[in-house]
Amino acid sequence: MGSARDGRARGTGLPPGAVTDPADPRRIGPDSPVFVISVAAQLSGLHAQTLRGYDRLGLVSPGRSAGGGRRYSARDIALLREVQRLSQEEGVNLAGIKRIIELEQLVDELHARVEELSAQLDEARQAAEQAAATVHRSYRRDLVPVDQRHQIVVWHPPTS
Length: 160
Known about the structure:
Layout: H1 37-44, H2 48-57, E1 63-64, E2 70-71, H3 74-88, H4 94-138
Antiparallel strand pairs: 1-2
């Protein structure tokens, strides 16, 4: 666990003063562009010039600082590692990797859209059920439901 020597808060594994509240704007998330190119290169195991090339090709597009420098997020680093894996282990060329990335992003967008539409459908179903319940409550109580599976025949004697 953490100790005073390594600068971590005791028992948390986090540095002292680390922001843990997800609503805090100072919190660094997976999409926060915080790594300069040299750090991103080291974390991804690639050369900085390779990262520049990937940026030019549109494979990994990092954020930019106010001065125009590249800033990579943790998600960018993971994507760089995936590009390297596809290239080195799977033998996929860069055009193929770009297409794979585009298709994976499309799949992610479609999954999000399906979740959104499912939520809307659930809301619509609940609204319909509530509307039906409201209508049923408005029925007069003297009405008797009739089972229409049976037929009723009324006989009237002939009048003479």
